[in-house]
Here is the input.
Amino acid sequence: MSFHPQMAYGAAFHKSSRALEDEGPAFVYTPENRARFDEIVTRYPPDRRRSAVLPALYLAQDQEGYITANAIRHVAELLGITRADVEDVVSFYTMFYTRPVGTFVLQVCRTLPCAVNGAERVTESLVERLGIKPGETDPTRTFTLLEVECLGACDRAPVVMVNDAWHECQKPEDVGKLIDDLRARGDAALSGCHHVVERKG
Amino acid sequence: MDPILTRYVREPKAFTLDFYLQHEGYDALKLALTKEPDQIIEMVKASGLRGRGGAGFPTGMKWQFVDKKIEPRYIACNADESEPGTFKDHLLMERNPHLLIEGCAIGCYAIGAKIAYIYIRGEFLHVQHVLEHAIDEAYARGFLGKNILGSGFDCDVYVHRGAGAYEAGEETALLESLEGKRAQPRNKPPFPAVVGLYNRPTAVNNVETLCNVPLIVAKGPQWYAALGPEKNGGPKLYCVSGHVKRPGVYEASMRITLRELIEGFAGGVPDGHTLKAVIPGGSSVPILMPDQLDTQASFDGIQKAGSLLGSAAIVVLDDTTCMVWLAENLLRFYRHESCGKCTPCREGTDWLHQILRRIERGEGQMRDLDLLTSVANNIAGKTLCAFGDAAVTPVLTTLKHFRHEYEAHIQEGRCTLPASWRARQMAGTKH
Here is the structure.
């Protein structure tokens, strides 16, 4: 916490206050994920298996939906490092979830180029539409809303990332349609192809 | 100047190996393998190629510094494009991935490395798929792997996916992240060219930088240098975003001016509005004012005007932009992205953000302006990496040019320029 007497620091303090808690169910990789893990490890020198921690965690997150303490143990054992080493990494990188998230994670870019094109309004529309605030998941666990920093597509601002798919040039009035679409069609509503030319014909 | 790096990006199937081979693809690699590695480094030095990631350091020098006595050596390609306003590497990797792969292979050959890791930011999963597909194609046709094109040279290229950390774009933090740790910077020196990935000599190069290498090898350093003004040779990708009619990536010679980029290529600010300020090189560099638009958009030109070309991310701001809000927005970014290693930056960015938010809400006091300067000056130059200097720049530069807006906020007790594109109610941020 800070020590300036004039400054009011509330609950929103630094990410270092974040805690990992959820033990989750027992965890081992599925045979497919284990095979992928074994392939990924070969990309790094044999005495540097630790390098594979990010891809290993992505596999765990894909399998379980979020990173549990049991997944951390499993990854640590496979890589021959301590649980604390893995937790250190999980707590640092923002793309690992340490709590369950919705089927669709909506990430609205809020940094300058998106913001001057109306990203704040996009978030507002999503908050109204979903009835949840940024950082929250709705009770049915369908949607999680997050505000994130620059996604690197400032020419197509504002950008909303839905899971790993990018939805670009989102106007505040468009996002209702996006939500309806995701509710109705599920994964099929995700923007599939991003190639500048191939996209949308 | 006709586009070179992005010449074919709008062609269908430009990302495939077949398309690339039909357009002189991998000719530079074939040519490079007939030369000595040192000759390649000399060519890159002679071309004057400067790093496109932000610092503008001569690439040939960087490669020369790589300690050739220690094995193994590595190339780490920085594809963690995270500087707000930057999206050029995104386009290159998505539409022209083989150019990057060819650049990696030539780079490895020049410095005697056998492995190049492309560190791509976690959010670029769709780009990673394109890149990995291209790498598979290159292996299948013998442009990567063992004994490339019968030359006896082995080279592997792997994509390593980050997980959402701006700081991973700093070269030593990138190496830490590649080693499976938090993306936090190392003390320098020693520089990565001597002690890099796994403590081995490593060249860390930006995507666009490596994409320029095949051009230099294929067409010669003189041709390359002549494309731009002195010491600023070659083609350059500019990312124009913000309040412009046609945001996008534009390729030009560095002889071009900011005015030609903004008013010509990007179509200028929307009708009925006037230009208020330009950030010429990503959120970390000082603002330029409308009367500086005729500045040459080269590394040296922008520096002479008092800013930096950085990653050539030109963010254009029109008269609807509140500059206190802008500083608050960017400091929220830096506060969120500070890696936490150095105390001045970790604590200071939070302080700056809190003070700015207070002023933006109309709850500030005049003495806050001195407090901002004081906190900023206690961060700048007191951190391991350049993040600290970058983080205070939006504060100091807006205070310098738009102090009157800060004062108006304090005097009137409200934001004096609430734009229509802003949130209806300024939300408290929790993250």
Observations:
- Chain B is about 40% helix and 10% strand.
- Residues 235-318 of chain B form a domain with the Ubiquitin-like (UB roll) fold (CATH 3.10.20.600).
- The radius of gyration of chain B is 22 Å.
- The beta strands of chain B are 74-79, 115-120, 156-161, 202-206, 235-242, 248-253, 275-279, 313-318.
